[in-house]
Amino acid sequence: MATTRAPIARYLHERNWTYEVDSENDRTIAGVRAENVEQFLLAIA
């Protein structure tokens, strides 16, 4: 199932996530905080 960055950014925005759209590298980056991991980055390319 393919999608574009715009619907992904809208989804994250509607849920008040902090994220960055990196158009130059064609990706969206979101950070996730959890008690059981020190640092987890989610990159959607």
Concise synopsis of the structure shown:
The protein is an alpha+beta fold and about 45 residues long. It has 1 helix and 3 strands; from the N terminus they run H-E-E-E.
* Beta-strand percent range: 35-45%
**Spatial order of the strands forming the largest sheet:** 1-2-3
Q: Helix- and strand-based class?
A: alpha+beta
Major beta sheet, specifics? 3 strands, antiparallel
Distance between the termini: 14 Å
Q: Helical content, roughly?
A: 10-25%
Count up the helices.
Answer: 1
- Gross morphology: globular
CA radius of gyration is 11 Å
Taking all residues together, what is the mean pLDDT?
A: 82
Task: Give the arrangement of secondary structure elements.
Elements: H1 5-14, E1 19-22, E2 27-34, E3 37-44
Task: Describe the protein.
With 45 residues, the protein is α+β, with helices and mostly antiparallel strands. It is 22% helix and 44% strand. The chain contains one helix and three strands. The protein has one helix at residues 5-14; strands at 19-22, 27-34, 37-44. It has a three-stranded antiparallel beta sheet, covered by helices on one side. A hairpin with a 2-residue loop joins strand 2 (27-34) and strand 3 (37-44). The model has no long low-confidence stretch (mean pLDDT 82).
